[in-house]
């Protein structure tokens, strides 16, 4: 366990296998050509090579690449946003179709400068993907949108397959880790989504290694379940730069296995827990067998139609 300001060397189990094959390079070039942002790159996700190259999943970051919040764990740039492109939903949908993605996560920087927190653009992105890539399941990962009920309703009217909002850390550490967002408001957003759409799976994620206790992690599980959250992910916090919060300690793989077992025993429908797990890790496995069958069947139909043209 490290002290504040003391740099901890990463353990062997955090080594990342890099795969820059043709699929990975093709997706990266497409992102640049379409002027799109991905949280995979902006937040320095350790799983980018696996998701892009092997699983045909990606996490698009809409509403620009400048966040209005300065959370102390996040590598995304903070400042005054200058970008609001209302044609972005169509570009995202075109890219999803070209890549034949089976599952897409749509997230965004926090846009507290917008009255609806970006909910309208989220909704239009969902609708555009539905039109152009009906075989693709869609997960959304918005900010708390300041807990505004109208913004939540605007987004949910577009009917995403999964609604994901991350609580990020335990209650005690929230003010230290997050900016503007609060623990209770995040729970409130997740509860409201379930009230509006009881059949839509909801999901949340926490990082560990910031100084929390096991008892506090278990309390987060209980609080999420009380808010009717279906899916939980638990991953290791990794310090993006020396300017960000220090890692207090690295959890061992067997500790993550134990946390997953606890989460499932408490009643979560699905839990991913591991050193490199992030909120969108293996997200395609969390939408259910019916959705995966829909993807495979519609892809096959589209390929047949293209051959017959």
From TrEMBL:
Its main location: cytoplasm. Its EC number is 2.8.1.8. The keyword S-adenosyl-L-methionine applies. Binds 2 [4Fe-4S] clusters per subunit. One cluster is coordinated with 3 cysteines and an exchangeable S-adenosyl-L-methionine. InterPro entries: Aldolase_TIM, Elp3/MiaA/NifB-like_rSAM, LIAS_N, Lipoyl_synth, rSAM, rSAM_sf. [4Fe-4S] cluster 2 binds at residues 67, 71, 74. It is found in: Cytoplasm. It catalyses: [[Fe-S] cluster scaffold protein carrying a second [4Fe-4S](2+) cluster] + N(6)-octanoyl-L-lysyl-[protein] + 2 oxidized [2Fe-2S]-[ferredoxin] + 2 S-adenosyl-L-methionine + 4 H(+) = [[Fe-S] cluster scaffold protein] + N(6)-[(R)-dihydrolipoyl]-L-lysyl-[protein] + 4 Fe(3+) + 2 hydrogen sulfide + 2 5'-deoxyadenosine + 2 L-methionine + 2 reduced [2Fe-2S]-[ferredoxin]. Its cofactor is [4Fe-4S] cluster. One of its GO terms (biological process) is protein lipoylation. [4Fe-4S] cluster 1 binds at residues 40, 45, 51, 280. It holds the Pfam family Radical_SAM. Pathway: Protein modification; protein lipoylation via endogenous pathway; protein N(6)-(lipoyl)lysine from octanoyl-[acyl-carrier-protein]. GO terms for molecular function: 4 iron, 4 sulfur cluster binding; lipoate synthase activity; metal ion binding. Residues 53-269 form the Radical SAM core domain. Keywords: 4Fe-4S, Cytoplasm, Iron, Iron-sulfur, Metal-binding, S-adenosyl-L-methionine, Transferase. GO terms for cellular component: cytoplasm. Belongs to the radical SAM superfamily. Lipoyl synthase family. NCBIfam families: lipA, PRK05481.1, PRK12928.1. This is Lipoyl synthase. It comes from Sporolactobacillus putidus.
């Amino acid at each position: 366990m490290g002290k504040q300001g003391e740099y901890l060397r990463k353990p062997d189990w955090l080594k990342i296998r890099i795969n820059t094959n043709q699929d990975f390079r093709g997706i990266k070039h497409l992102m640049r050509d379409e002027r799109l942002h991905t949280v995979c790159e902006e937040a320095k996700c350790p799983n980018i090579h696996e998701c892009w190259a092997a699983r045909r999943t990606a996490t698009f970051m809409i509403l620009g690449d400048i966040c209005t919040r300065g959370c102390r764990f996040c590598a995304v740039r903070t400042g005054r946003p200058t970008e609001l492109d209302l044609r972005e939903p169509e570009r995202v949908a075109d890219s999803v179709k070209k890549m034949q993605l089976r599952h897409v996560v749509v997230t965004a920087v926090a846009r507290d400068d917008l009255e609806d927190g970006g909910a309208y653009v989220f909704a239009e992105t969902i609708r555009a993907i539905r039109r152009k890539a009906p075989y693709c399941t869609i997960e959304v990962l918005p900010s708390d949108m300041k807990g505004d009920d109208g913004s939540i309703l605007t987004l949910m009217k577009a009917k995403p397959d999964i609604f994901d909002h991350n609580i990020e850390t335990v209650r005690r550490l929230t003010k230290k880790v997050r900016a503007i967002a609060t623990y209770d408001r995040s729970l409130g957003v997740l509860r409201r989504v379930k009230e509006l759409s009881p059949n839509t799976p909801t999901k949340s994620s926490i990082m560990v290694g910031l100084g929390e206790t096991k008892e506090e992690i278990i309390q987060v599980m209980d609080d999420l379940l009380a808010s009717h959250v279906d899916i939980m992910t638990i991953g290791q916090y990794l310090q993006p730069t020396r300017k960000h919060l220090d890692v207090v300690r690295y959890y061992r793989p067997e500790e993550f296995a134990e946390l997953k077992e606890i989460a499932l025993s408490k009643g979560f429908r699905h839990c991913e827990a591991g050193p490199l797990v992030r909120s969108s890790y293996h997200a395609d496995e969390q939408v259910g067998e019916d959705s995966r069958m829909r993807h495979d069947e519609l892809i096959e139909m589209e390929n047949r139609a293209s051959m017959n043209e």
